[in-house]
Amino acid sequence: MERDKETIKRIFPNLAKEIGSGDSKVSVNSVRTDNCADEKSEMHKKYSEYVPDVVDFLRRCDTAQQAEEIIAYMEKRREIDARYAVLLRKQLRENGVRSFGSKKEDDYYLKHGEC
Fold it and tell me: Which end of the chain is more exposed for a tag (fewer CB within 10 A), N or C?
């Protein structure tokens, strides 16, 4: 054990000095039993009230035809107005379906909420 301390002093002199001085102490007053608990809680807060918009749906499409169907459906339900639908169609026609962002796979929110 003593040999290990000497090695640390030789390799990391400042760290050894800091540890030896006792000035840099951090108290630990909690223990995490579930490594993912905080991350899951934060993910739940982040997506619990999230309502996907038309772009979220377009990012799930594989083809321009699917994207056009989404735009038409959202326009018909008046979830987007006609002017926005025109802009989306123009972007789709000129830049393709991936111009709305990378493809969101199935269970996107579940997968991206896990640690």
Answer: N
Domain boundaries, the chain: 51-115
Residue 68 burial (10 A CB sphere; 0-12, 13-18, 19+) = middle
Report pLDDT digits (tens) over 25-68.
666 665 555 555 555 555 555 666 777 889 989 999 999 999 99
